[in-house]
Amino acid sequence: MKNMRIMMMVVVMTFTTITYQFILHHTPAAHAFSGQIIQRGATGSDVIELQARLQYNGYYHGPIDGVYGWSTYWAVKNFQDMFGLEEVDGLVGQKTKDMLATSTKFYSDFVYEQINKGRRFTHYGGVPLDIQSAPTDQEIKRARQIAEQRKIESEKQYKAQANNQQAKQQEQQRQQQAQQKQQQEQQQQQAQQKQQQEQQQQQAQQKQQQEQQQQQTQQKQQQEQQQQQAQQKQQQEQQQQQNQQAKQQEQQQQQSQQNQQQNNKNEQAKQPSQPNKDTNQQQNDSTAVNMPGGFSQNDIQLMANAVYGEARGEPYIGQVAVAAVILNRVNSPTFPNTVSGVIFEPLAFTAVADGQIWLTPNENAKKAVLDAINGFDPTENATYYFNPNTATSSWIWGRPQIKRIGKHIFCK
């Protein structure tokens, strides 16, 4: 009997090993997306593969149902942001698909088999598929922890690669800067040589101009000498003419004395007459007259004030979380059904009590409110939160806690 039991155990172990290897061998390791861009509102096989791959590396924890909703949208944005993609917009294009394909696996046969049979299942990486089919809550929790750890390790590896790539880029930039500096020095040398050549040319031109000026000066001196000689000659000719005129004047004096009396009669003093002129001028003065359209904007602004007053020192996701709590209270029958009613409910928010609600919010607070209105709820439907370092109420400590974001603990 003992030998029979041993033989049965050996047969069972052998069969289990062969079956497990067969499953691993025949299970597809990867699957390719179609060519379409996947965006919020899409459905079908591409969305199933997208959700499965995001769940494989711990970014998505919802059901794999083939419907691109808000949970899938924020998982895609977080993945795009962590892996340094150019556009963090929730649109799954070719770059996002390639990054998912290289960093995850998609066991399509397993996933579609579970969907077709209507089973509850997960697709976390690093966990055997037989455990992921119809798992218990404890198994799901353990699988999620394994996926979260894989996510952290993959992010570390990516950051290390990105740092190495950045170091290479910096080295390339240093080399380029060195080359540019060398080129600049060469250009400066060439510019100096060119400047020296130009200076030499200028000096040669100046020397040529000086020689030309000397020649011009000599020519001018020669011209002045010729002019002086011509003036002297002219003066001599004028003196000769004056002598001849003097002789002629002596001859004419005698005749002029005879006619002097007659000439005196004919000479009369004449006074020029000046016509009268009218100097009056008329001036005409001319003058020119110059004839002569959910939530109202008030709700959004009030929520931004509350987020800024309550969580301006928190990380961005913590600010979105505070806005999400306000919206969760509006939607809850336990609280007022308006934004103003929730915020100004007595003893509800510290910022209202100490007056920080009226501080001017920044753009991050406004953006956090819009993200919360668009469905981003990192608190997972929390309606309370508190700071454990400053909270003194024993009642708030008794609330069921969901998670901690920044300095705040969020509760149901």
Would you report the number of β strands? 3
Distance between the termini: 59 Å
Give the CATH topology of the domain at 2-162. Muramoyl-pentapeptide Carboxypeptidase, domain 1
Rg (CA only): 52 Å
Indicate the mean pLDDT: 82
Your description of this structure?
This protein is mostly helical and 412 residues long. Among the domains are: 2-162, Muramoyl-pentapeptide Carboxypeptidase, domain 1 (Orthogonal Bundle); 299-411, Orthogonal Bundle (Arc Repressor Mutant, subunit A), CATH 1.10.10.2520. It is 62% helix and 3% strand. It is built from 14 helices and three strands. It has helices at residues 2-26, 45-56, 70-82, 94-103, 108-116, 129-132, 137-258, 260-266, 297-311, 316-330, 339-343, 350-354, 363-373, 394-397; strands spanning 384-386, 401-405, 408-411. It has a three-stranded antiparallel β-sheet with strand order 1-3-2, with helices on one face. Helix 9 (297-311) packs across helix 13. The radius of gyration is 52 Å and the shape is elongated. It starts with a helix and ends with a strand.
